[in-house]
Amino acid sequence: MVVLFLLLVLIALVLGIVGVTANGLGYLLVIGIAVLVAALALVAVRWSRRSGSRPVR
User: Fold this and answer.
1) For residue 35, what are the domain limits?
2) Is the C-alpha dihedral spanning 35, 36, 38, 39 positive or negative?
3) How far, in whole angstroms, is CA 10 from its chain's centroid?
4) Quick one: pLDDT at residue 47?
5) CB-hemisphere CA count at 13 Å for 51?
6) In the chain, what is the greatest distance between 2 CA atoms, to the nearest angstrom?
7) What is the C-alpha separation between 37 and 9, in angstroms, rounded?
8) Where are the transmembrane segments (predicted)?
């Protein structure tokens, strides 16, 4: 799970950097932001599921 999140964040960073630096490739920045939002949503869903399944001691 952590590896997938870090991989998605790395991909988002690379796409964002390429989108900002390369002339005419601004859509890569948008795709990078979308990948970052998807990674954060994935972590949020996993975190909310995990917190509800633990028994209280």
Assistant:
1) 2-49
2) positive
3) 8
4) 82
5) 6
6) 57
7) 9
8) 26-47
Within 10 angstroms of residue 12's Cβ, the number of other Cβ atoms is 21
Domain annotation covers residue 56 = no
Report d(CA 46, CA 14) in Å as an integer: 25
Contact 15, 35 (CB under 8 A): yes
The DSSP letter of residue 1 is -
**Using the 8-state DSSP alphabet, how is residue 53 labeled?**
S
What's the pTM value of the predicted model, to 2 decimals?
0.76
Number of domains in the chain: 1
Q: Which two tokens stand for residue 3?
A: 């590896």
Phi-psi region of 55 (alpha: psi -120 to 50; beta: other; left: phi over 0): beta
Q: Which two tokens stand for residue 44?
A: 């949020």
